[in-house]
Amino acid sequence: MTRAGAIAAIVLCGCFSPDVREGQFSCSDGDPRCPGGLACDPCSRLCVAPEHVCAGAVDGGAADRAAAIDSAAADRALVDRAAPVDETAPADQAVAIDASGAIDQTMPSVDAALDFVTPPDATLAPDLTTLPDLAMQPDLATVADLKMSQDLVLLPDLTVLPDMTCIDPTACNGKCGTLTNKCGKSVGCGGCANGFMCTGANLCCETDATLCAQKGATCGTINVTDSCGQARSPSCGACGGATPRCNPANHQCVQCLVDGDCPNGTAPLCLSNQCGCGMAGVVCDQNSICSTYDQFGTCKGQPGTACQGPGECASFACENGICDPMMGGQPCRTNNDCVNQNVCQAAPNGCQ
To answer: What is the pTM of this model?
Structure first.
């Protein structure tokens, strides 16, 4: 390079104003100088703004930083001035000469001042090789032998827990006696209320007596359907005594169903299921007999009884003060009541 070129380079450098930012320059305790406005951070060994210097720096260090800042400012001023150039120095090592002509040996070259290449000292970064050795984690092989723990086989076998699908809470709804539910288990469902019986189908159905009472039946056999939907024919009893006949219309015991059910002679007519002579309930005494088998019948003297006229005799005939025998078709008690002691048949036949 010519002398003129070197001078031009120095002049251009004097006009150069780089964009200096924090962390672009490194520094050290031996050389704490930094570009203008920055200070050496002893923690990171980088040039940073003074307010960003690490808190670890003590008051004494603050004074050193201030001196370093002043020195850096002075150095920047030297760089900014167009200083004389030592023409004997190599072109790439231009050296500033002060006014007395002496070479400033302490001033670094422009290239050194603007060292964008030198990174922070990497040796100050944490040594990752000192991290915990992951291979040193607990050796699982030394953990208590699981085979020595409680034998899990001895724990309750969960496979034998009750089958929840076999819970049948409605098995006894409307049922009685003992039955087998859908799980195949025998279940006792209890008995039935009064008047009901437990059937083979485990249903509470009415007893015969209950069905008869429900129908008001006191005799005979009735045909009904019970509350379980079953057709039933219960027997409701028999009749006797003063009401020997069972009325099939209402299954009530009555005195008679037909004239033949009534005592011939004394009350031979069956009127409204009640025997009578001429009308229901009229019964002739032992010395009289009913005169006819219709509503006009009356109790009159039977054959052989004393009379004063035919009107007193059931046969309507009185001879020699005695009632004559009954004629054919008239009521009678015995054969002796009939003419010629003919056969006395039951009403409505009478004497034959």
So the answer is: 0.44
